[in-house]
Specification:
Elements (H helix, E strand, L loop, with lengths): L1 H13 L37 H14 L5 E3 L8 H13 L1 H5 L22 E8 L4 E8 L12 H20 L2 E10 L8 E12 L2 E10 L5 E11 L5 H9 L6
Antiparallel strand pairs: 1-2, 2-3, 3-5, 4-7, 5-6, 6-7
The structure holds octanoyl-coenzyme A.
The site of octanoyl-coenzyme A (CO8) has 15 residues, from helix 5, strand 4 and strand 7.
């Protein structure tokens, strides 16, 4: 019951922006008009490049979202909202020296790394969050441009998706965080273009430290490909609500 309430509260956060899509119903993927920025596309909704299995898993998880125990997390190329300006300002103030070295002219070209490939060639994924269990499951379909050894995913690409998943778990659970440590055991190579599940779990919060673990498994859960543990450090203990809102409702203004 508590979980359901929390899920509703999280869902309600999404509705803060006028015109935000309903929390638990993705609806059809919105077609881009020529005047719209590319960044307005929610990449966590089904696309033609998704395989049948990926769509099937998406549908299964969306079904789990119906009672509010799971929440579908939207995902954009950029979080170009007024709130993300506040977020950037906060981050730059936290790292003033590093911030001075940022090429400000290039900032407008900034894109979230995992959303910077053409559809189907790089990272295709959708995440679902369970607030009661502090878990995120990421359904990941990697494309042919993520190759390392011939026929298998590059370890860095796997590490990227792990960081994105455990990072999202830490952010939604704890506020504004950064990865301080990521330990990965690659146990089996992952065949290129296959679909895997990344299961992450918030294990512990100790003051500003969040410990999140995860594993990467085949869809039938018979193969354990990778295991990882991570440490995230909370930058701002006071601003949890702000970042949660930003993550769950990260579309640019309509
Ligand atoms: C949107 C989708 C999600 C995407 C997620 C992607 C997230 C990322 O990739 S972030 C990018 C990669 N990470 C970075 O660049 C971070 C670089 N590191 C840093 O900036 C800093 O070290 C930072 C912010 C992590 C911590 O610095 P700071 O805030 O000054 O904390 P600091 O006081 O040093 O440490 C706080 C506590 O954590 C501990 N700690 C910090 N780092 C570590 C570490 N690597 N291992 C163990 N303990 C650590 C400290 O010992 C301290 O413990 P205690 O309170 O018990 O004394």
């Amino acid at each position: 019951m508590l979980g359901r309430c929390a899920a509703r509260a999280l869902g309600a956060l999404r509705g803060l922006r006028e015109g935000a899509p309903p929390a638990r119903s993705p609806g059809p993927s919105r077609r881009l008009l020529s005047s719209e920025k590319v960044s307005e596309k929610d990449h966590s909704l089904p696309k033609p490049c998704w395989s049948k299995d990926m769509r099937l898993l998406f549908d299964q998880f969306m079904k789990k979202c119906e009672d509010g125990s799971w929440i579908h997390l939207p995902s954009y190329e950029d979080i170009a909202t007024q709130r993300s300006q506040d977020f950037s300002t906060f981050i730059h103030a936290y790292f003033p020296t590093a911030s001075e070295q940022i090429n400000k002219e290039k900032l407008s070209q900034g894109r979230i790394f995992t959303r910077s490939f053409e559809d189907g060639l790089g990272f295709e994924y959708v995440m679902f969050y369970n607030d009661a269990e502090k878990r995120i499951v990421c359904v990941f379909q990697g494309g042919p441009h993520l190759q390392g050894m011939p026929g298998f995913f590059h370890g860095g690409a796997i590490a990227t998706m792990i960081d994105a998943t455990v990072g999202m778990n830490a952010i939604v659970s704890g506020g504004i965080v950064m990865t301080a440590n990521l330990n990965i055991n690659f146990k089996r190579p992952i065949p290129l273009c296959s679909i895997v599940l990344i299961n992450s779990q918030l294990d512990k919060i100790e003051g500003r430290k969040l410990l999140v673990s995860c594993n990467v498994q085949s869809v039938d859960e018979k193969i354990l490909y990778t295991e990882a543990t991570s440490l995230f450090i909370k930058l701002n203990p006071e601003k949890e609500f702000h970042i949660k809102e930003l993550v769950l409702n990260s579309a640019p203004p309509a």
